[in-house]
Amino acid sequence: MMHNHRDGQRSTEAEAKLEAEIEALTSQEAEAAATLKKKIPLPLKVFAILCIVAGVAILPMIGFVIVAMVIAFREGALADDSTASTVLFFALLAILALLTVAFIVFGIRLLRDKRRFAAQTAELLTGLMVAGILCDIMLFGLDGTVLFFVAFIVFLVVLTSYLDPSLADERELQRKLRDMETREDAEDGTLGRDETGKGFIALNFFNLFWIFTVCCVLGLIIETVYHFVVVDPGHYQDRAGLLFGPFSPIYGFGAVLMTVALNRFHDKNVILIFLVSAVIGGAFEYLTSWFMQFAFGIVAWDYSGTFLSIDGRTNGMFMAMWGVLGVVWIKLCLPWMLKLVNLIPWNWRYAVTTVCAALMIVDGAMTLLSLDCWYQRMAGKPAETAMAQFFDRNFDNEYMQERFQSMSIDPSNATRAK
C-alpha cells in the first residue's frame, strides 16, 4: 500500500510538472505571437522609405555607369588599365547594383512589416557589403568608403537581431537555460558538441572563434618549423601574419572553413575528407595570395615552377598538405579541441571570448591599416592623415619588413588606382 501511495504521489508530481511546462510553452508562444504583432517603429519606417527612395534614385545611375564602362571597354578606352583592375571594377559595379536592389527590397519588406524576410535581406546585404569591401580595398585601398561599409555592416547585424523575432526568443531562452545546461554539459564533457547529431561540433561563434585562434597559433608553429627544417635548414624566419601576437590568420580561416565544410563528414571516409580539404585549402590559399597582391602589392609566397603550380599561388604539394591537415583536423584534433576549449570555466567563457574577440578584431584592423600605410610609403605617397602619420611613426618600413619577414611589397603589382 505504501508503494502504491508513493507511485501515485510521483505520478501526481509528474503530471503537475508536465502541466507547468505546457503552461510555460503556451506563455512563450503567446509572447512570440505578441512580438510578431508589434509594429515596426516610426524611425525604421522612415529608414525603410529612405532605402527605397535612394535605391530607386541610384539604380539608374549605376546602370548608366555600367553601360558607359562597357562602351568604353569595347572602344579600348580602358586599355591602359590591367585586366585585373578592369574585372574588379566591373565586379564592384555589379555588387553595387545588387546592393541597391537589395536595399529596395529591404525597404519594402520593412514597410510591409515582414520582419523575418527583412532580416534575411539584411543578411544578404551584409554578405554583399563584405564582397564590396574586398573589391574596394583592392581598387582604392582603405578609404572612407570601407569605413562606411564596416559601420553599416555593424548596424545591419544589430538590426537583424532586432527584426527576427526568433532571435529574440532564442536569446531569452538561452538566458534562462544557459547556466544550467552549460554546467551540465561541462560536467559531462560534452560542451560544444552538436546536439542535433548531424555534425561533430556545434558551429557557433564561441567554437569557431577558438578554432580560429588556436589554429592561427598552431599553423604559425607548423609553418615556422617547416621553413626552419625543410625550406631553409637552420634559418629561423618569423612567419607571423598579424601585427601583434603569434598568429597566422590564413591557417585560422582555413581551419574555420574546413570545420564548417567537413563537420557533417567527420565520420566519413578519409579519402573524401582529404579531397575536400585539398580543394578548400588550395582555393583559399590562392584567393588569399591574389587579394594580398592586388590590394597591397604584397607577395607572401610564390610556388612558380613547382609541381601543379597555379599562378604560383598554390600547388599540388601544398594542396596535398591541406588535405592531410584536413584529415588530421577532423579525425583527431576536433575532439582534442573541445577538451581544450572546455578548460575555460563555463561561467567565464562568454566574457573571456568577448574580450579576446575584441582584441583579435583590433589586431586584424591594425594589421590591414599598417599594410595599407606600408603600401602608401612604398608608392611614394606622403602621410596626410593623423592615422597615416601614427603608423609611419610606430610601424615604419623597417619594422614592417622585420615583422612580416616572409612578405615582399611592390606597389606596381597592386590593382588600386595609382
TrEMBL record:
One Pfam match: ABC_trans_CmpB
Sequence intervals crossing the membrane: 46-73, 85-110, 122-140, 146-168, 200-222, 242-262, 269-284, 317-338, 350-371
UniProt keyword annotation of Transmembrane helix present: yes
Record has Transmembrane helix as a keyword: yes
Keywords noted in UniProt: Membrane, Transmembrane, Transmembrane helix
Protein name in the entry: ABC transporter permease
Organism: Gordonibacter urolithinfaciens
Taxonomic lineage from the root: Bacteria, Bacillati, Actinomycetota, Coriobacteriia, Eggerthellales
